[in-house]
Amino acid sequence: MSQPDILWQGKLGKKYGYWIRPIYTNWKDMPGNYIYAKETSPRKWSAIYIGQTSSLSKRLADHEKEAEAIERGATHIHAHTSSADEIVRCDEEIDLISKWKPVCNDRL
Length: 108
What we know:
Layout: E1 6-9, E2 15-22, E3 32-41, E4 44-53, H1 56-61, H2 66-71, E5 76-81, H3 86-100
Antiparallel strand pairs: 1-2, 2-5, 3-4, 3-5
């Protein structure tokens, strides 16, 4: 996985590259950001939940918001790995949440 499948733009204008995979994909044990998403029309996506983690494999294996995200139409996870520290991942998470206002994020 090298080239991103999609670019998500944050409120501040920065674009972040993500891979698109089915929800039950096995992810690497690496830090990264992720989005539970549903396709609203061909190649158009709506963010249902946006988050960041120190381990995609551990976090996405048993996510507390997964059932709610699926109930609200999520079929895929958009994610990318990152060697960045938690502050950088959180800044990206906040930037994207601020723009897309996902229905399953408690902190908007």
